[in-house]
Structures
1.
Amino acid sequence: MREMENRRVELFETSLRDGLQQPNLEISVPNAVGLLERMAVFGVRYAEIGFAGANRFVEDLTTALHSVNTGAMELALFGRTRGRETRVQDWPDAQFIISHKQRVPIAALVVKSRLLDVEKSLETTPEENLLMAFETIAYLQDSGLEVFVDFEHGMDAVCGRRENGIACDPASKQRSLEYFHQMVAQCVGQRVGRIVICDTTGGASPEEVAQVIGGLTRDYPGARFGFHGHTDRGLGVANSRAAILAGAVQIQGTLLGTGERCGNVNLTTVIGSMQLRGEAEFVASTSLSGLTSLANSAFAAFGLEPPHGAPIVGPGAFGTWAGMHGSSERKNPGAYLWCDPALVGANPTIGVNGQSGKANIILLSEALGVALNSTQAQAFIDANENMIEGGGFTASELSFKLASMRVLETLPHRFSVRSWRVFDESDEAGSRFVQAFMSLGIGESTIVTTRAEGAGPVDALTKAMRRELEKWYPALAKMRLGTFTVTALDVTAQDSAAHVRVTVSFFADGHEPWVTAGVNSDLNQAALMAIMDGFDYWLLKNAE
Ligand SMILES: [Zn+2]
C-alpha cells in the first residue's frame, strides 16, 4: 500500500459516454454543457463526452462547447482501434477524434486486452490486434492528441476469467496473462498517457484489483495507470479504492453511478468516502463542500430524483427520521453520523414524513429558520396532510420551508390559483388539442383570468400562469423549468386513484437549481402545487 498522505488522483468522468448506456436516461445538450461547467469548477480533471462516430448528440455538444469555458478540465472522446485489414488513415473513429482535437484533446482508445475477445469478438490474431493498437495509438499521437488506453476486460484477462466469469483452464489463463502483459509493455513503450485497467464485467474483487494495479505500478514505474470499474458485484467503489491505494493515478466512473447493467462506479461516493478520510485527494479541499450541490445539479440535468439512500449525496445520507435518533442528535450532534455533513455541503436532515410526527416538524422548521411552535406545527400538519404522507417534504425542504412560512403568515401573498380547468381533446389520428383556463388572484384583491395552449395539461397550465404572472412579476421570465419527475404512491391500495408526487427542478442563470414538490390524487394539481412553490421561491429570492 502506498503512503496515504496527499495522494493526488485524477477524476475521469464518463456520464456522457459510458454512463448513458442505460434505459430511460437522456440529457439535453444545454444541460450537458451546464453539467460540464459545474464539473470543471468542482475539479474534475477529464470528462469523456461521447463515442467517436456519426452521433448527433456528440456533434451538437462539441459545437456548443466551442464557446464554453471548462477551465483546466480536459475533454475526451472514446474510440476503437482500427478494424482488421483496414488502414488507420481510413479508420472513421480516428478521423472523428482528429477532426475534434482542437476542443477535445484526449483520445480514450479502447483496446481488447483479453485474448478470448481478440479471437472471438474481433476474429483476428493476437499479433494483428497488437498491430491495430500500435498503429492507432501512433496515428493519434502523431496528430497531436494525448492518448489514454482502456484495457477492455483487463481484470478478467489477468485473473483468467472467460464468459460469464467462469475460470479458464490453467493453460489458457497463462496465455491470457502473457498477452495482457505484451499489450501493457507495448503501450508503455509508446508512452500512452494512461493505461486504464477495466473491470468491464464488474466481476473483480478489491484483493484482485490491489494485486493487479500494485503489480503493474511496480513493474512499470514510469507508466501511469488508471482503473475503470463497474458495480455488478456491488464492489465497484471498494475496487476503485483498492486501485487507488495500490497506486492508480486515475479513477474512471460517473458522478451518479449511472451506466450499463448495475452502473459505473459512483464517483461522488469514491470522492467523499476517500477524501474525507484522507485516503486520497481528488479535488482541492475547498471544492469538497460543493459535492452535494454538484450531485444535485447532475440529478437535475438527467431528470433523476436523487435516491434517498445514495451515500454522502442522497437526501437521506445525513437524515434522521426515527424520533429517538432525532432527539439524540439534538443533544449530541453527530452521534449517528460518520462525518460532518458540512464538509460535503450537506445539512443533517430532519425528515418529515408519515412516520416522523410533530417533533420532527418542529425540529426541521427550527433548522430552516422558520420555527413553528406546537400549535403552529399542528396547523401545519392539518394543512399539509397529503404532502406529509406522500413524502413531498422529503423530496423538497424548500416546499417545507414555504409551507411553514404560510403557517407563520410570513410569505407575502403574491399570487394564488383560484380555479383552473383544462380542455384536452385527443383523437385516433393522433392529433391533440390542450388548452388551460385559469383564474388567478394577484396580491390581496386583484383577480385576473388567463389561458394558454400547451403540449399537455401541465404545459398549458404553466404557460397560462406564466403569461399573466410575468406582467406583474417580470423576474419570472428569468427562470425556467428544468426537469419533472412523477412518482405514483400507494398504487396497490388505491389503484388508479393513487396519489402522485411530482418534483420539479428550476433553473436561472447564476443560481443554484431549486427543487419543489407537490402531492395530490390529481397529477395536474400536484404539478401545479410544485410549480407554484417554484415561482414563490424565485419571487421571494428576487425580493431579497
Ligand atoms: Zn465501462
2.
Amino acid sequence: MPVFSPLETTLFLVLLIASTVAFGLRFGGVVRRILQAKPDADFKLGSLGKRAWDFISEVLFQTKVIRERPLPGLAHAFVFWGFCAFALITLNHLAAGVGLAFLSREGWFGRFYFDFAAAFAVAVAVSIFGLFVRRFFVRPRWLGEPVSVESGIIALLIFVLMITYLPAFWYGETKPLWWAHTLALLVFLPLIPHTKHLHLVLSPLTVFLSRGEFAHIPPLAGDEDFGLDTGKDLTRIVALQAYSCVECGRCTQHCPAANTGKILDPKKIALGVRDYLNDFGALSEEPLLGKHLSQEAVFQCTTCGACEFQCPVGIEHVPIIVGLRRGAVNTGKWEDAYGTKLFLALERNGNALGFSATERDKFIQKQQFPVFDGTQEYCLWLGCMGAYDPQGREIVASFARVMAHLGTTFGVLKKEKCTGDPARRLGNDLVFQQLAEQNLETLKQANVTKIVSICPHCVRTISVDWKEFGLAPEIEHHSEFMARHRNQLPRADTDDKIVYHDPCYLGRYRGVYDEPRAVLARSGEVIDPPRSRERSFCCGAGGGLAFLGEETGERVSHNRVQELVATGANVVGTACPFCNSMFRDALGAGTGAAAPPQLLDIAQIAAASLPK
Ligand code: SF4
Ligand code: SF4
C-alpha cells in the first residue's frame, strides 16, 4: 500500500466526510419520510423462517432477478455479488488512506480474499459493461424514455472501481490508482440515495418486510380509514416500497394495461408515490390522485398481479392500487356510471350482473340441483357467472355432471350472493363487507364445511378476503377437484389440440398450474401459449373491470385471444367463467383465423367424455 503524506491524508479525510455527509443528508431525508408515514395496522412479522428464506433466495441469490430475465438478470446478480465481495476490500482501501489497512497479501486470508475479489472485479466489469450496452444501445422500451443519464454515470463509476482495482491487484497499488479508486467511491456514495440506486440499501428490507401473501389487500383499520386518499394515509411499507423501485420496467413489460395502450403503468404507480412523498411528504393532506398519480390509470388495473409477481425488489402494486381506489370510492371522488350501476346491483340484487335472484332459482330448478342440507359432501358455489351468465351456467351444469359421474354428493345454497370480489377490488369495502357477512351467515346456517367453485375469483375471495370477517370456509377450485379424481374420468379419444389459458386468480394468486392441465390431458394434447403459467397474460376481466364498460386502447382480451389462436390449437381451454366470457366476445369479434378455435371450460371438456 502507498504511504500518504499528512496533506494527502487530510485531503482524503475531508473528501470522505463530505461524501458521507452528502449521503447521510439525503438518505436521512428518505428515512424521515418513510417513518413519518403511519405504521401498517395489519402488519405482523409472522414466520421469520419464511421471511429469512425469501431474503436468502431473492436478495442473496437473486433468484427472481435471474429467473425472469436470465441474461441481464445474471449480469445484475454479478454486480450485486461483486458489491458484497467488495465490502471488505472497500473498508480496507479506505483504512489504507489513514495508514490502517488490515488486509495483507502476506497472510493466507488476505491472499485468498484479494484473489476472490479480483475474480468478481472481472465479472462485475464485464456485467456492468453489458448492462450499459443494453440500456444505452439496445434500449428495451420497458426501461423507459428518455434513457437515464444517472444510470450511465453510475455504470461508469462501477466500471472505474473495477478497473482501478485490477491493475493494483496484478501490478501492485500505486498512488494514482488508489486515488482514482477512492474518488470513484466517494462520488458513488452520495449518488446512491439521490438515484434509483437507493434500492441497494432499501430493497433487502423491502423484501424482508413484504406483506407475506401475494396481492394481499390489507383490511381497513377502523371507521376512520378510507384507504389511500392523501399523504396521511400512506403507510410505512408503501413508502418503503416506493423508495425501493429500481425502475427496471419488469412490471410494465408484463402489465396487460400497459401492453394495450392504457395509461396505467405499474412502474409509474410506484414512482408516483415516491414523487408524491418527495414533493409533499407523508403528513400532507394533498390528494394522492392528482399531480403524480392518475385516477384513470388506477381504475384500469385488472389486479392480475403480473407486476407484483415480476418485481425484483418486493413492491406490492395490487394493495397500493386497491388502496388508491378505496380512497377515491370512499371519498366519493370516483364518478363512474358503470361503477355506480355495479355497486347498486350488488347492494340491491346481491349479484354483479344485476339480475333478480329468482333467475337463479329458475336455473337451479331447471338443472334439478339439490339444495344443500348438510348431508352432502360439497356445497357447489355457483358465483354470479355460474348463476346468471349463459356460458357460466353451461360450465356449472357440466361440472355438476362430472360430480354426479364421480358419485360426489353436492348441493347449492338457496340464497347465495356475490362474494364481493368486484366491490373489494374496486375499493368499495362497505358493499364487500355486507356481502361477505351475509354469505358467511348463510353458510353457517347451512352447516357447510366444504365448498367447490368454477370461479377462481370466488375461490380467492372466499378463502382469503373473507378471513377479515371470521374463519374463511374451506374451498377449492373445480380444476383441483377434477385433477384429484382424474383417474376416474374417462379418456377421450380425440386429436384435439387444446391451448390452455392460465387465469390470473388461479395461477399467480393460487399457484394452481398443473391441475387444469392434468384434466385437459385426458381429452387431447395440451399446449401452452408463449405467455403461460406465472407469466400468463390477463383476459382483462379482473379487478371489477368486467363490469366497467369500454376499454381505452386495444382490448386486453383481444390481445390475449390473438396469442391463443396463433398457437394453431382447435380448442381454447379456460378455467374461469370470466376469462371464458371475455374470450367469447373477443372470438366473436373475429380473429382472422380460417377456423376459429372452440372455446370451452375444463369442466365442459371433461364432461364431453362422460357416457351420455
Ligand atoms: S395488477 Fe396487472 S393490470 Fe394491474 S398494474 Fe399490475 S400488471 Fe397491470
Ligand atoms: S416496481 Fe418493481 S418491477 Fe416495476 S420498475 Fe420498479 S422495481 Fe421494477
